[in-house]
Every structure is written in structure tokens, then in C-alpha cells.
Amino acid sequence: MTDSPECAAGGIAVTRRVVLGAGASAVAGPALLKGHHVHAQPVPTPSGIENPLLLSFTVNGSSLELDIDARASLLDVLRERLGLTGTKKGCDHGQCGACTVHIDGRTRLSCLTLAAKMNGRQLTTIEGLSDGDTLHPMQTAFVDHDALQCGYCTPGQIMSAVACVRQGYASSPESIRDFMSGNICRCGAYVGIVAAVAAANSSEG
Amino acid sequence: MSRQPFPDLARIDAFDKVQGKTKYSSDVPFPDLLHAMTVPATIGKGMVTSIDVEHALAVPGVVRVLTPHDTPPPPPGPQGSPPPPPMLVHAIAYRGQPVALVVAETLEAAIEGAEAVRVSYALEPFAVRFEDADAGREDTESPTFGDADAAFATATTRIEAIYTTTANHHNPMELLSTTAVWAGGRLTIYEGTQGSNGLKNTVAQLLQIDRSMVDVISPQIGGGFGQRGEVPRHTAVVAQAARLLRRPVKLVMPRNQIFHNSRFRPHVQHAIKLGADANGKMISAHYDCLQQNSRRGRYRSDWYHAGPCKVYGIENYRGTSGDLRLDTHGPAQMRAPYEHPSAFAFESAVDELAFALGRDPVEFRLAHDTKIDASTGKRLTSRHLNECLTRGAEQFGWTGRPVQPGTLKAADGTMAGWGVGAGVYQAAMHPAIATLRVSANGVTRYASAGHEMGQGMRTAIAQVLIAGLRIDPARLTILIGDTTVAPQHSTAGSWGTASSVPVAVAAAEKMTAALAELLDGRKVAGNMHEQLARLRRPFIEIEVSMVAPGQGPEHLERLKTGGMAIAGLHGTYPDFTALSYIAHFVEVHVEPHTRRIRVPRVVSVADCGRVISPRTARSQVQGGVVWALGAALREISETDPRYGGWLNADIAEYHVSVNADIGKIDVSFIDEPDFDANSAGVKGIGEIAMVGAAAALANGVFHATGRRLRTLPIRVEHLI
């Protein structure tokens, strides 16, 4: 198991205290794309945060610090505090895979991860996978094989698919199907997903 | 329009979707946003006697708890119109019904606040299981023609059987969510809905404000499947919270609560008798369907007949149907709502009859080709079902299939079976008004009715605009699902492409004519943008409107006021019947010891009229097959007789198909236009994709094992 190249290739780590509120979402979102520095405007932490914890972690290559609610899941912090809405909530119970992210290079369900446990960790979300307008090969393969319909499960599918190839489970359709079965696609794009993972695996050699 | 096949264009919103950039309703950020959480009823039926909000209000961050006192009942609507869904009320009709709404500064506080609300109830007896129904059957008049009794008496081969399809939930991956924003006296609702027009009207009615003050924005939906066709109860409650608190409020409903509050596919019992004459022709059909409904539910029981009474030209048909009323939320449309259950039953029965006659099930269906809709006597516009069956059989390798079950063995020794199933679905259409602006700066903006839920409507519209206009495709914006840009109509019933593409074709033609008039015979180089720039015209904007066959200006008016304006319900038009057709071929493997059922391959051939977007159409059919396999092998919503509501109310216990459940699905299209149905020759694909595939699987299980299983889902325990 190697570290995620996405994380390793991140921008220069500039640690700064960033206090982000819900209102900063529109600002923070683009800033947390891979390789960008954070230029979030300081806005008040929302009232009603109980037992605030100072969290310090790296998101798509940018170092962040913010006060979080001790009860918050990583998924809710990403979506409601950092404006990183590419990671989706499909069940909030670890049943569907829509919230899959990479933590220290491993796939993890962000809905089952307490944000408080993220101190010092490296996080990659779907927003950190592409390099500007240059898509990750897995993203290109998903477009080419129409491995999606509504697109809601797609970020989680792609995060798992990247791990499937990286961990060597993309050698046969059966192996891809097994590995990818933690990510539910209710539209039923499975045929395209298997084709996309196989194609990305071939193109990466 | 050219008859050339359309190119295999990539889905136009795929580039954003693979990057997580697509904004679904709960992704849109707002400053000062408040978070809401519903408090669900914990009883099966009864009355709320008190709601103690004190502990909830003591939770830091909670700003308000809405109870029934905060959501007054609306005045009655126009006579004959259905009542809007109530907001918060004391009368509990089903477990999980929202009792209160907690609003807080953070999501965490809203969740804790909702758990701190204490509700007291007066319980009433309830019934939620089909077999526990406490009142008699309510009959509904159903299609009946010829003399089915007399014909059945003369039939030389007969079959008679009862089939059961169980309750299912849609479970799109996106959770139900509503964000309500009041600004400048206007209410804007961000919600993934298939009917932004209906949602606008209903919320306005419930909040007692003029509909012109409400906007609904639903540009991308994380899966619809019919769940987003009805206005949920919580939507107006969230809007009321935003009105009272003067701040934007967002609710994302937990999936467990969605099971109770969303509509669902009801449990249905199908009793079928078929009779064939000495020549092996089906001459008589009796079909009775008895479905579960809610106490006041309006989901019709007679529409299960829509397919069976038309598909094979059976001249003597007796349809009956009825409801059993239970204490759940009301059932409503779920993908191929009537056609999937009825096709499972009817196509299984047809298979049983073919077997009784010693006939090959494909050849038997081919022998029942017809040009006439036997239920109305009208002409069938383009029935290519036989081509679907013939081509599918060839692609599947059906030739040489032994008639006797239990004779095929797979390479690894498992029992194998080949099953076929067919389906029909209405080719319907609604009116549309579209505006198209091509600008000298390179931008093209198109706005019309429709909702994108993954079926690929934007890609289909883009196909015809790119084919019909010399524009920059990269700077084409297609605005749909937004009541501020064009009159919206609900998107369901496979009428999406048939309603959105013809008007887009007409818009492209009118734009081309407008530019030609401007050019007035002058030769000006470049694409449309460059020509406009050279002519020093900033833009040309045109508007076009279109109605379905048999419709007039009154239907356009109905569209403008947000009403339903469908033509072609059940395929019926004034002068003809227009239907989509499909044939599915399924290979089933049953492990001899565990009896586990696997489906290594499916071949599906569809006649959906003209194929506008080959890539998204293929994905739609693959998805429909995945749905059918899930319904056939796994999906069942179990009710809880002890506490009411749904027992397996999450997707760990309600099993939809996962990747490892799905093998090869080969899809092809007849791709013949139906110009009776509309000028683009489109019939519709999203629903027909699923119809008949569950029967093909069950017929394959019979062929593999000799066991005829008549209840869905088919599971290991049914084969032991």
C-alpha cells in the first residue's frame, strides 16, 4: 500500500488558521482544488458549535485549520463547512459508498469518519483528483464509457475505482466487480463502470 | 430532420459529473444557512396529543421547532382538484410521518434537537401487511372487450395462475432535500424534483401565496425513478421555516425517514387466465390485479391493464382490478410503475401457455404479431416487437434451445436456463415552449421544459441543436428544470425526449430561417456566431412552441400554469396507438447445491422510435435491466406489523443490485422513427427498458430448474 500520489503531489503546505463558516462555501470550494493555496475569507464559526475542536489536516494538498463541532462527521465538515460538495451523502450509514474519499492514500467512507480523527491526516476528495482541467485517467475513462447517469454516486465510484487500479484489483472484470461492490449505483451504470476501470487500468499499464 | 443515425456523443454533463462539480440541490451554498431535521412519528397510526419542545430548544444552536401550530391548513383548492399534501398535522396516518421540524445553526445541533423532541400519542389500530387488510376490496372499472368467458370456454389449452409482485422503494442515491430561500418577497426552492411546475403550485397553495412569487430550481437530480414526481410533505414545511426565520433553511432527509415518506411501488396480486385455440392462438385473457393502497391513496389500480390488453392482439379480454387499503403513505409511480409488475405476471403466463402448447416461447410471441390495438380498435403506429424478438434471439444464440427445462448445463456444471420476456410502454408527449438565443460572442442559450435526472435529456437536446445549428457546442447552455427560464412540465412516463427533442428541432429550424432572412442572400463566412458578428447583430432570439398530436392551444395554456398536459396516455391518441417495445433474453445459472441464482448475460433489443442519443439510450436500457434484475432477485420493502411503517428501511437491508450482481448486458435498437407520434420520431426509452426483463429472468429460472416461481423477488429459499 503506497501513499496516494494525489496527496504526495499536492501544493506547498501552507499552514494557516482558516476559520470557515457555511457562508464561505462558495469561496472555499474552488480554493481547495488540488494545488491551490487557501484564500478563504475569515468568517465567524457558526454559533451552536458545541465542544469546538481545532482540526488541522491537509485537504487536496492544502493545509487547513478550522474549528469543528466535535460531533461532526468528516462528510458534513467537507460539505457544510469547506464547500467541498463533490463528496456525496447517499445514506450517512456506510452502506452506499457515495462519500468515499482517500485518507492517507486509502479509501475511506467519510460519513463514518469522525472529523475529529482527521488531525494530521492527508485527505484527497474528488475535487483533488484532476489537475486543473486535465482529468485523472479514471475520470476520462468514466466519461468515455458513460459509466454514470445521474452522477450522484460518481465521485465515490471514481475514488474507489482509482484505488481498485492502484491496489491491483483491476486485472479482470470479476475482480473489478467485487472491488467496486461497495459503491451502489442505483441508475445501474455497472457495465460502464467495469469497462471504465478496465480501460483505465490498461492505459496506466 | 436527416435520417442518418445520430453520432455517439459523450454525455454532455459527464465532464462536470466526474469532477464532482455538478450542483445537486443540497450542494448549493447560501450565507446564513440554517439546517433542519424532521422529527418522525414513532407510531403506526393515531393522534399527536402533545409535543414537548423544551429540551430541543435547550440544545445549543437550535433556533426554532416547528410543530403543527406553525403550519396552518391551506384553503381548499378549486373544486375537483386533488388536495395538496398536508404539512405538519396532529393526525398520524403512517409511521415516520413528520411531526415537527427542528431548525438550528448547524446540522449537528439540528440532529440532536430532533432527537430531544418528546412527542406523546394516542394510538389507534393499524394494518400495514397485505394479508392483514381490515377492509374489503374496492373495485375499479377496467378494460374489457370481446367475450373472454365464452372464448375461454372454447379454448383447447388453458393456463390459470396467481402471481405476486411485492412493494419496492425507488432509492435514488441522492437523498430527498429541500433548500428554501426568501429574498425580496420571493421564495426560491432548490430541490431535486421531476416536477418543478407542480412543486411550485403546491408550495404556493400551501403557503397561501401567489404562484408567481415562487421559483423552483431543479437543474440536476441525483436519480428520479418516479420518487421525485410527487411533492413531498416536507417541502412546504421547510419553506414555512425559512419564512418564519427570515433565513435560508436546508433539510436533507435521512434515508430511513425517506422510506416512510416517499411513495413506493405497491404490493400487487395478479390473477391470470389465458386460453388458446387449437391453432395455438391466444383467444382469451382474464386479468385481475389487486393492489395495496393507502387509506386515501389515488394511485389507480386499473392501469396495470395498459400493456397486457394491447401487446398481443388478444381479441377477448376481461380486466378487473381493485385496492386494499392499508396504513402506509400512498403508493405512486416507480419506474415502469404498472408495466413492470404486469409484464412480470403476464409474460410469465404467456411463457406457461407456450410451454403447455409445446411451443418455443419466442416463436409463440412472434405468432402474435398485430397491427391493431385490440383494446381500442385503433392502428398501432410502429410495432417492431417482432424485429426486437428476432434480432434478440439471433444475438443471444437462442437457436437450438431445448424446450424441456432442466436440460441445459453451464460449463461448470451449474443448471442453466434461457428465458425471454417482452414489454410495451406508452409513447406519450407534452407541449413545450422553448427559447433559443444564438449570440455573436459565441454563446448559445436554450431554455425549455424538462428535468435532467441522469436519463440524458440535456445530451439528447444537444444532439439536435448541434446537428441543426452551426454553433460552438462547447459554449451551448441548456436550461431545464427551472421555472424561471421556461414553463416546466413534469418529467416522467418516458415522455421526456419525445417532448423536449421535437421542440428543439423546431427551434433550430426557426433560428436557421431567421438567420437566412437576416443574411438576405448575402454570402457571409463563418459559423452562426461569426456571421452575426460580421453583421453587427449581437444576437438572434426566437421562441417556438409545440403541442402533441390531438392537442391545441388550451394545452399550451395548461403548460403555462404548471398543469399536466399529457397526450398519449397508454399510447392512446385520437387516431392511433403509439407504443415502445422491447424484448429481453436472459441467461440464468442456478448453482445445484446452494441454488444461488446468477445472471451472466442479458441481451435486450428495444424499439423506442428514433434514437437521438445512442450513448445515453444504451445506458438507460442497461440501467432498466439492472432494475429488473434487482426487482426479480432482491428487492422487497417489508412492512412492520408491530410498529407500522417499513421494516428494512435502509439500503443495507433493502438490497438493490450491486456491481458484482451484474454481468454482461448487450443492448441494441431498432432505431426506426415513428412520425405519427411526433416530428422527431421519438417514442421513449427509460421505462420500457425495464418492462418484461423480470419475467425473462423468471422464465429462465423455470427453464433451468423446472420450477415455476410466481412471486418476486425469487430467492435461494424458493428453489430449495
Automatic annotation (TrEMBL), chain A:
GO terms for MF: 2 iron, 2 sulfur cluster binding; metal ion binding; oxidoreductase activity, acting on the aldehyde or oxo group of donors
Highest taxon listed in the record's lineage: Bacteria
Any Pfam family: Fer2
Keywords for this protein: 2Fe-2S, Iron, Iron-sulfur, Metal-binding, Oxidoreductase
Classification via InterPro entries: 2Fe-2S-bd, 2Fe-2S-bd_dom_sf, 2Fe-2S_ferredoxin-like_sf, 2Fe-2S_ferredoxin-type, 2Fe2S_fd_BS, Aldehyde_Oxdr_Iron-Sulfur, Beta-grasp_dom_sf
Domain 2Fe-2S ferredoxin-type: 53-129
PANTHER family attached to this UniProt entry: OXIDOREDUCTASE WITH IRON-SULFUR SUBUNIT, OXIDOREDUCTASE, IRON-SULPHUR BINDING SUBUNIT-RELATED-RELATED
Stated name of the protein: 2Fe-2S iron-sulfur cluster binding domain-containing protein
Organism of derivation: Endobacterium cereale
Automatic annotation (TrEMBL), chain B:
Claim: Plastid is one of the keywords in the record: no
GO MF term set: iron ion binding; oxidoreductase activity
Keywords, comma-separated and alphabetical: Molybdenum, Oxidoreductase
InterPro entries named among the record's database cross-references: Ald_Oxase/Xan_DH_a/b, Ald_Oxase/Xan_DH_a/b_sf, Ald_Oxase/xanthine_DH-like, AldOxase/xan_DH_MoCoBD1, AldOxase/xan_DH_MoCoBD2, AldOxase/xan_DH_Mopterin-bd_sf
Compositional bias of kind Pro residues: 70-86
A Pfam short name: MoCoBD_2
Domain Aldehyde oxidase/xanthine dehydrogenase a/b hammerhead residues, every copy: 19-125
Keyword tRNA-binding among record annotations: no
UniProt-annotated stretches for the region Disordered: 65-86
PANTHER family noted in UniProt: ALDEHYDE OXIDASE 1-RELATED, XANTHINE DEHYDROGENASE
Name of protein: Molybdopterin-dependent oxidoreductase
Gene source species: Endobacterium cereale
